Amino acid sequence: MISKIQELLREVEAFEPQTPADLESFRVEMLSKKGRIPSLFQEFKNVDPSQRKEMGARLNQLKEAAARKINEWKEAFESRETESRPEQPDFSMPAGLSPLGSRHPLSVVRNRINSIFEKIGFVVSEGPEIEDDWHNFSALNFPEEHPARDMQDTFFIEKNPDIALRTHTSSVQVRVMENQKPPIRTISPGRVFRNEAISARAHCIFHQVEGLYIDEQVSFADMKQTLLYFAREMFGEETQIRLRPSFFPFTEPSAEMDVSCNICGGPGCPICKYSGWIEVMGCGMVDPNVLDNCGIDSSKYSGFAFGMGIERIAMNIFQIKDLRMFFENDIRFLRQFSSAI
Length: 341
Ligand code: DAH
What we know:
The protein is built from 12 helices and 10 strands. It is α+β, with helices and mostly antiparallel strands.
């Protein structure tokens, strides 16, 4: 009997199953009711009483060794199974929020300007960024060699005939007048280019919105009222405007429009440089020469035009001190406008 026990013990120790099924058949073979170890226990009844103690101990050791072996392998197979099982998706988990982008502050301001004018019947029109001399200068009454052309430092692409990056969106009003009959009510947002040194207050690329209103008997008073409406929609109900005489080749008379400071409301603060006023746009009655240049009868029609810089308004509304921020596209800056629409 002792040799049988020893042999079984060796078998138990050497056993290495390949699959859980191997392990199960080994368990049945060794430990099930009629298995090899229980049948040794049967034989134990016939063992000589003097040997019983030792034999009993050995038998128990064998049984324990087999049980331990089976358990170890069972655990090994189980952990292998959980490792190799692909992770199950948890359908009850709340969905992760995908990051939302935000509109660029210049787009926010441009959209606001567009919708303020759209409410009173203006339609948006666009023109090319690369312009010929006619649309950027000549049709707008800038005479050849006139110093007015020096007001804007132009990026020329070709000379004679001159092709340049547009220096203002006033070029779009020429294109609209050439292609449409009055009444005309249009605003033209877009990118413009000037050969200027980049600083906190100037850039060689910036954005403007041009406005144009042409019909019979349009007066300076119509312009004033339209721009007052715009200023109050844009900067708040209490906003006042003032018009200062100015000069542009394409308007006569011309003016600069200021709005009362939307920060201090008038008494003066660092934003309005203690003047109480903030310069917002140029404007004026379209010069009859410009109407005629664009094929509109200046004896029948009149109109007003205006042009404003989007950066300047955005800097004012969002209190941005450096214009270069708009072009750096630093995500930490842009994220701050996620609630603006
Ligand atoms: N084009 C002018 C500029 O870039 C702005 C401007 C002034 C536009 C007066 C107008 C206007 O239509 O009437 O400085």
